[in-house]
Amino acid sequence: MKIQINTDKNIEGHERLGAYFSGELEKTLARFEDKITRVEIHFGDENGEKFSLHDKKCVIEVRTAKLQPITVTEHAESIEKAFQGASAKIKKSLTTTFEKMKAY
Q1: Under a CB-based contact definition with an 8 Å cutoff, are residues 91 and 85 in contact?
Q2: Burial of residue 52, with CB atoms counted within 10 A of its CB: 0-12 exposed, 13-18 middle, 19 or more buried
Q3: Which of 9, 86, 76, 75 has its CA nearest to residue 40?
Q4: What is the pTM of this model?
Q5: Which terminal Cβ of the chain has fewer Cβ within 10 Å, N or C?
């Protein structure tokens, strides 16, 4: 499973940030590792320098073999909280998707 992290111009994307979020996502999606080919994480700050609640955004896109990409979005006051919300959403979405596939 390859993990790629992208940030917009308002979020500093340094190696430590990438290592942390990659590690956390690998733990979260470990049970789906054999089904996932690539994961892209996009971080953004929708207001730039202006202050606003819930202006940080995390989009997680998971590409699986033989399926369309699955994408979730979460907004929060920090990129960490946005990431946590998005990773919970993607885990639930993948669980639902693969359980439905088993049923058929």
Answers
A1: no
A2: exposed
A3: 86
A4: 0.88
A5: C
